[in-house]
Amino acid sequence: MAMTQKHPHEILRKKAQELSVSLYEAEFAKLMDEADPLRHLRDEFTFPRNKTLPKVDLNLVEADEECLYLCANSLGLMPRGLRPLLNKTLDDWCNLGVHGHIEASIPWATCDESVTEDSAKLVGAHKDEVAIMNGLTVNLHLFMISFYRPTPLRHKILMEQHSFPSDQYAAESQIKLHGYDPATSMIILEPKKGEEVLHTSDILSTIEKHGESIALIFLPGVHYYTGQLLDIETITREGQKQGCYVGWDLAHAVGNVELFLHDWNVDFAAWCTYKYLNTGAGGIAGAFLHDRYKSNNLPKLTGWWGHEAKTRFLMENEFKPADGIGAYRVSNPSIMLCTGLRASLDVFNMTSMHELRAKSRLLTGYMELLLQYHLSRSANKEVYVNIITPSDPEQRGCHLSLEFSIPVNNVFQELLKRGIVVDKREPSVLRVAATPLYNSFEDVYKFIDLLHAAIKCAAEL
């Protein structure tokens, strides 16, 4: 994990003192945005207008105003650079036909390779440790074929209680594929009674206790429901000490927090790209395999794109695997999907994950402070908000998960009416993400202001 820094609350309070303004007034947000060195990145994205969104009450908002978009944890906004890139790709198809595989502006035959190096930067990996391919769950299955190899003594997968459903389905199906029963071949981590998130110490204790029976530790980098960022480095190290393989679902971590997969010695990881990486719904996924597996004989499912590039088109029907992660590329990639990733990476290349993370800590800390000041149980006894995401900035990314003392669906519907885009997750949470690429301090201030009105109306339903 990154070195401990000052808590964002401390930094924000000091900023307010230096600016001689109240932390809880609109002027503070305005001045913070004016001083934000990343504020220009907002112009690289397109925001829906209130009038184009469903369920917006145009009596409550201006129709032509941009909506308040705080939902990168579910789907990122469209980069402005995508449309011209996509149009160029379509022109290449129109004008070149099959020659586009080699002669297109982004040659289709190697379009995945054109986005690999920049993707590797985002996850702290070497270029040859990353492949852009398939969808997230497909990549997880491909990795589990290699890294879940159960034996009578070591056949269990360690997961957590509320893993994303697709992750659990994948793990359960792999267990059954090998003739085992998920009821006895899964160890499920649970928070302490009355708590929402996991303690690293409890995870490590479970690994130490059951390590000899665990074949694979498979956890989320950032938890989709609670927003908790797990200690990837420590858990990986301690799991491997017990002889376990350790893999990570980074769907909510990539583009959100700093990652150092190579240095952390992670065995494998996979991620989608349509959340914080802004590639559009169903965007192509990413995969990481540490380079110590560059030459491995692990079992794997193979296809022709995993064949070594220099002899791939000789069509000899004798599989010669590419090195490392390259051997896991089953099918040729989609130029359309890679174009979406290219447009987003062009924006990420205007900054760094270190700079984005620094802004993110402040944005999320600012939202937390405003929620605590205006809507905590102590501030508002009748109707209040509970933040289940850890307050420790080292244990979270940019999204906060909120529970309410009134029905969450009522609050959600009132926010929709006001052009506020967040998302609801069953059973009781609204997820709110102020992403540093395109959200501002004024966005956060406006959200809290409108949340007041939404809660007041929701409480009357």
Automatic annotation (TrEMBL):
Cytoplasm as UniProt keyword: yes
The record's annotation in SUPFAM superfamilies points to: PLP-dependent transferases
Catalytic activity, EC: 3.7.1.3
* Cell compartment(s), UniProt: Cytoplasm
Cofactor or coenzyme needed: pyridoxal 5'-phosphate
Q: Which residues carry this modification: N6-(pyridoxal phosphate)lysine?
A: 275
Catalysed reaction(s) here are: L-kynurenine + H2O = anthranilate + L-alanine + H(+); 3-hydroxy-L-kynurenine + H2O = 3-hydroxyanthranilate + L-alanine + H(+)
GO terms assigned for molecular function: kynureninase activity; pyridoxal phosphate binding
- Name any GO cellular component annotation: cytoplasm
Metabolic or biological pathway, per its Swiss-Prot or TrEMBL entry:
Amino-acid degradation; L-kynurenine degradation; L-alanine and anthranilate from L-kynurenine: step 1/1; Cofactor biosynthesis; NAD(+) biosynthesis; quinolinate from L-kynurenine: step 2/3
Chief subcellular location? cytoplasm
Q: Which domain of life is it from?
A: Eukaryota
InterPro entries found in the cross-reference section: Kynureninase, PyrdxlP-dep_Trfase, PyrdxlP-dep_Trfase_major, PyrdxlP-dep_Trfase_small
Keyword field: Cytoplasm, Hydrolase, Pyridine nucleotide biosynthesis, Pyridoxal phosphate
Binding site residues for pyridoxal 5'-phosphate:
136-137, 164-167, 249, 252, 274, 304, 332
Keyword Cytoplasm attached: yes
| Family that this chain belongs to | Belongs to the kynureninase family.
Per the entry, what this protein does is:
Catalyzes the cleavage of L-kynurenine (L-Kyn) and L-3-hydroxykynurenine (L-3OHKyn) into anthranilic acid (AA) and 3-hydroxyanthranilic acid (3-OHAA), respectively.
HAMAP family xrefs: Kynureninase
Assembly and oligomerization? Homodimer.
The protein in question is named Kynureninase
The UniProt gene name for this protein comes to: KYNU
